[in-house]
Design brief:
Elements (H helix, E strand, L loop, with lengths): L1 H15 L4 H19 L4 H19 L13 E2 L7 H5 L4 E5 L4 H4 L2 H7 L6 E7 L4 H10 L6 H15 L4 E7 L5 E6 L7 E6 L11 E6 L4 H17 L1 E2 L6
Parallel strand pairs: 2-3, 3-4
Antiparallel strand pairs: 1-7, 2-5, 4-8, 5-6, 6-7
Helix pairs in contact: 2-3
Amino acid sequence: MRGIEREFRRILGDIARFRNIEAYVIAAVGAALVVLDVIGEVDQGLQLTVITAALALLVFRNTRPDQRPADLDDILKDRQSYGTFRDFIHGGKVLWVYGPSNVNVLRDSSDIKRELLDKGGEVRVIIQDPAQEASLAILRQQLDPNNNLDHDIKGSLFTLNKMLTWGNVQYRLAPYSPGFSLTIIDPDGRDGRLVVEFFGFHNEFIRDRMHIVIERRQSQYWFEYWAQQFGVMWEISREDTLQSG
């Protein structure tokens, strides 16, 4: 009885909110025809009309988009969820990257060379300006305590200056951190894709940070939004007067 009562309440709730009204109307007419057919004869044309309407409704419902809520665990990921960096950049022509030191990206500089630069690709990198002490002081407090930010920036600058000799590579120094990092492949391409990584606060390990992977074909609006964010950051960041190339 409780199950019937729950169903009855669900139906009343749907009707009160004008949900599934067409289905309830056809169900009610069909039930009425069954009752009339038991106590007397019902015109076959009317029966066929109701059956046709019910079939049409079923076909129409199958064309509706899936209304189930998205599984956030399929959208919000950690660093391990999107495979290797080489797999992510494979097939790309342009790479844009921002991170406080980008030490984890530049650790794979040989992959960048093979997958992009050796094929005539372009690379733009933004890291934190080591001369901006106030910004660095905040980042040292915010980021993972297991990493030495100053040491990582120094190592990245060494790697970047080496990469300048490999091809079309540019880098700039950001005055402050926006609280996220960005890795973008082909910002103007049809198959563009990007990863937004949110720093959080004192994650024990860098891989624990929340990431969102966005492909242009999934959401052109949000893909272009984040690509434009990088563009703004590039414009306000300065060239390194000590870089060689």
